[in-house]
Amino acid sequence: MTEQEQRIQVVALAKSMFDRGYATGGAGNLSVKIDDNRLLTTPTGASFGRLEPDNLSVVSMSGEHLAGNRPSKEVAFHLELYRNRPDCNAVVHLHSTYLTALSCLKGLDSENVMRAFTPYYVMRVGQLPLIPYYNPGDKQIAVSVGELAKNNSAFLLANHGPIVSGKDLLDAVDNAEELEETAKLFFILSGQNIAYISDENIDILKRKKP
Ligand SMILES: [Zn+2]
After folding, report:
1. Ligand 1 mean position, distance from CA 96 (Å)
2. Percent of all residues in the chain with a pLDDT value above 90, rounded to a whole number
3. Residue 193 is part of which domain span?
4. pTM of the complete model
5. Are strands 29-33 and 90-93 parallel, antiparallel or unpaired?
6. 161 alpha carbon to ligand 1 midpoint, in Å?
7. How many domains does the chain have?
8. If you measure from the C-alpha of residue 184 to the centroid of ligand 1, how many angstroms do you get, rounded to a whole number?
């Protein structure tokens, strides 16, 4: 895919998420690797519904702003994911309704905030660790993501929202959507007697690709 095709894909997928309510206002950001040294990302405060291919930010893997509009401060945790996960080529960060609601609950299991009740969640995301609350822009968010990135491909920022990676941008968006739908089911099932997926089946599913 050429860089221009990647720019068009970023705009189209962000608009699709915006139109279906996964992103609102200027919240959220996404990025995709152009090559080993550069990534394409959404500008600071930009609405997913109104991105333009020529205004996207280009950032080096060391965090330098190279071209386009100014990137979000949150690009720092995207960079930590790329540095620590060689299989990661795209990152989606949302403040989507159900995952953000989940991130505001007390007493979550910090290693995996949602115990698996569907196989798709396990195949796409595996588990969802919780990153403790820090104010937006705090450098500790990126540090915490970096520490967990070797063993996890998705994260939930407490009182904030999800970070989801993928092998390409389509994969990262699909993973983010699956995760948001799983959180929606979590709330629909709240207080009910849930049949969870067994540990044995989870081990088998984690070795499978969707
Ligand atoms: Zn955010």
Report:
1. 10
2. 96
3. 3-206
4. 0.96
5. antiparallel
6. 6
7. 1
8. 19
Beta-ladder partners of 57: 41
In the prediction, which pLDDT does 207 show?
85
Cα–ligand 1 centroid distance for 58 (angstroms): 19
Contact of 94 with 17, CB cutoff 8 Å: yes
Give the catalytic positions in this structure: 74, 120
| Residue indicated by tokens 């990126």 | 142
Say which amino acid occupies 47: S
Give the tokens for residue 146: 């970096």
- pLDDT (average), residues 47-54: 97
Residue 71: which CATH number? Answer: 3.40.225.10
% of residues, the chain, pLDDT over 70: 99
Considering all CA atoms of the chain, what is the largest pairwise distance in Å, rounded to the nearest integer? Answer: 52
The residue to which tokens 């401060």 are assigned = 73
Residues 6+ apart with CB under 8 A from 61: 36, 37, 38, 39, 79, 82, 83
57-87 per-position pLDDT tens digit: 999 999 999 999 999 999 999 999 999 999 9
Residue whose structure tokens are 């550069």: 38
